[in-house]
């Protein structure tokens, strides 16, 4: 069996779960239509997921259960970077009033591991666990810039350079130039590359020189400009990242 080809039944199960996560809830006909599978096939998968405790049926619709939340939280707490970074993300949100987050790289994508919202934070329409193509966002580029060259190539070969907005970088040479600049100045910037009108600054977390994630502050473009965007927020993030790196190394 080819290791690169997922077993069809397993793929259908996870496609079903991902659809329910995205839609919130859906009926059997809606799920069958979305997955382009026979109703009987989807029903069999739903019954199995119900019995295993991963799906809940409410009248005529289905939704994912909180068991997935428990699994995700367990995985998050096992990551050494999470405890010290969580404290700093909360502090960043309080200090800036903006949307602060911790992101990691997982299977070649940016994953938001933790989010904290300040008093004036913009609703970015994302939640913990949200996944994004790495070249389209500040934390993804901050992490990419500090990965080995062969890992960068592997990620780009698998996921490409998708165009999300007119400002998203879609050329490998241009991306490589950006990554070199990020390594030199110490932080990554997103000027509407994922969402028009939204900007972000991110710095890598580099205990002992190995990237473990990135801290990010995001906000509307009218508040993320000039000295604040180019100096104040990057410096604040660099200080927080340094605290996380020290605590990570000490195991605190």
TrEMBL record:
Domain called IclR-ED: residue spans: 67-252
Q: Superkingdom of the source?
A: Archaea
* UniProt-listed Pfam families: HTH_IclR, IclR_C
Q: Does the keyword Transcription apply?
A: yes
- Give the keywords, sorted: DNA-binding, Transcription, Transcription regulation
Q: Does the keyword Coiled coil apply?
A: no
Q: Where is the signal peptide?
A: none
Q: Name one GO biological process term.
A: negative regulation of DNA-templated transcription
Q: Which GO terms describe its molecular function?
A: DNA binding; DNA-binding transcription factor activity
What name does this protein carry?
A: IclR family transcriptional regulator
Species the sequence originates in: Haloterrigena alkaliphila
